[in-house]
Hints:
Elements: H1 2-5, H2 15-22, H3 27-39, H4 42-54, H5 59-75, H6 87-95, H7 98-108
Amino acid sequence: MDQVLSFSEDSLITEDLMSVALGLARISSIQNLGEGIILGDYESASKSYLEMLQENVSVKNICTNLLDFFFELINNIDNVEKTSLSSEASGYVAKATIDEFFWINRNRNRSSIK
């Protein structure tokens, strides 16, 4: 906690402050990366990925958080409106097959990210 507070001027802890201090990905950055992948918007996905790298977020943390993003999506595949996806991404997910998302989940369970 002291490490995070040392980055704060007014003792107010925000998501941005927490991510910078601990080298974690912001939820919004993972959301943008995940939606970019879903929609095939490689420019947006690349921008989000590079921003996280510039914020000193490790590739392992990015991958783990991104896989968690897709896992949550798979768990709510029948209730996409419960997720934080944009309406455009929700529309795409509604048309996608479960096989596409199952593949992501299957790979999430492998211990390839160390």
